[in-house]
Input
Amino acid sequence: MSKVKLLICYYSQTGHNFQMANWAKTAAEEAGAEVRLRKVKELLDTSDPNPSWKKYLEDSKDVLEATGDDLIWADGILFSVPTRFGNVPAQMKLFIDQQGGLWAQGKLNNKVVSAMATAQNNNGGQEMTIRSLYTSLCHWGAIIVPAGYTDNSIYAAGGNPYGTSGTATREGFANDLESAVKHQAKRLVEVTEKFVD
Ligand SMILES: Cc1cc2nc3c(=O)[nH]c(=O)nc-3n(C[C@H](O)[C@H](O)[C@H](O)COP(=O)(O)O)c2cc1C
Output
């Protein structure tokens, strides 16, 4: 079997999606994938961050920014984003919108994709955010792998079948997420494997 190349592409401001991306990386590597963990470029002024933002910026300083080459390299892509008013954050949207050149060359066809999201509230827009992301990925010709109810950990995390939903608090997460994130990453690797030559 070939080794799946998995890109984990996230945006985070206060660290929750960074944590989820790292859980996913651990699980995907355990499942045998070669993993690139990448953040998308920050668009906000970072010169005077609040304490939680500052901590995240320090924790993630060695993480490389995602590029089009990472998308070409990847067989599968797992996205993780915080909601912004029920939608995909501009930082991730811009990264997606910058890929018109690759899209026109057909280089985004058949990427096997899945997505996760966080919000401050239990029902603060995670489902809409994931669904919005999937809309753009349909235009890429991606193969979407939803979480469904493929594992008990999904129920424990709140039961979002589109992708794992985190409820972000100052202390961490209000819901039990780690197992669901790890299941989603492992499942994406296993499904991607079926599409790799
Ligand atoms: C401009 C803005 C809009 C937000 N909109 C929502 C929202 O609609 N619903 C919600 O529950 N949380 C909302 N939040 C909270 C974020 O989604 C939350 O802080 C994020 O999921 C934490 O993820 P992170 O630590 O990876 O940045 C918003 C935050 C900001 C800054």
Summary: The longest helix spans residues 178-193. The radius of gyration is 15 Å. The helical segments are 16-30, 51-59, 68-73, 90-97, 100-104, 126-140, 152-156, 178-193.
